[in-house]
């Protein structure tokens, strides 16, 4: 028996039938998947119409993920609306709810990172620490977890643990050169068993090894060991610490040392404490020196802001670690001319 000239026992006929069946099955499967996807999208849009974006409840996020098969990244993006609004508790609730349903290890690690980071941003340092330690149990080379753990231990003043984290970061090829000096400096300053003189000597030894700790060392010496500060004044860069020098009390200034340093002369002439500098290459100081020499009725002063040289964010106060990008000792002091306010005793006259 033949069909279209082809014997049904012919192998070619069998192959044609097989390919026809495969094609039909593929076509039907593809059509069904398209229908299912369109149906899911319609239901997903209907669900979103019931809510305002960003006000979905925790169970709604889980529902979108488990029932409507919304991609994991899309769920995380939706949940991030809480973070943008500063609602850390809501974001944490979403991540915790999703963790109960996510089985993929990569996605679970990503969720734990988000959860730990949100705890960190919200100020829940102990909880953040626990989450990052949990991540490191099954992913010990997770650089993000190690980096956040380092900052947490720093904030908790647990510098021994911070040094342990630095060693782990070093093992995963992270440059810890600056961080090592930074943590060592903080550890000395916080040591309750060391005298101020011993701390001062140790801090100066670290500073001589690496000048990145200059700001921390100067601030400590000004507060606890002014004689050593003025003894080593030529080792410091006055421009980098101009705000600390500017706000020094008149009686705490060694004017014999000032007379030997041109920049210090400019700073304290601009301040009005002495009359040794004629001008300055620093615009703000130059203006104040000119006003001082001319005995102008215009009263001006210096205020300061701090520019992070890494992320370029400007901050009103100095912090040794940038709160935005978490880089260490990256602030540059930026002087600004400002109106001078009278002292309290003058305002009463």
Instruction: Assign the structural class, choosing from mainly alpha, mainly beta, alpha/beta, alpha+beta, or little secondary structure.
Output: mainly alpha
Shape: elongated
| Tally of DSSP β-strands | 5
Oligomer: single chain
Task: Work out the helicity level.
Answer: 55-70%
| Poorly predicted runs of 5 or more residues | 1-6, 50-54, 343-349
Q: What percent of residues are in strands?
A: 5-15%
Largest sheet: spatial strand order: 4-3-5
Number of helices: 17
Sheet with the most strands, sense and barrel status: 3 strands, antiparallel
On the 0 to 100 scale, the average pLDDT is 85
Radius of gyration: 33 Å
Q: Cα distance, first to last residue?
A: 124 Å
What is the helix/strand order?
A: EEHHHHHHHHHHHHHHHHEEEH
Structure commentary:
By secondary structure, this protein is mostly helical. The protein is built from 17 helices and five strands. The strands form two sheets. It has a three-stranded antiparallel β-sheet with strand order 4-3-5. A two-stranded antiparallel ribbon has the order 1-2. The longest helix is centred in the first third of the chain and has 39 residues, at 11-49. The model is unreliable at 1-6, 50-54 and 343-349 (pLDDT under 50).
Features:
three-stranded antiparallel β-sheet, disordered N terminus, mainly alpha, 349 residues, 5 strands, disordered C terminus
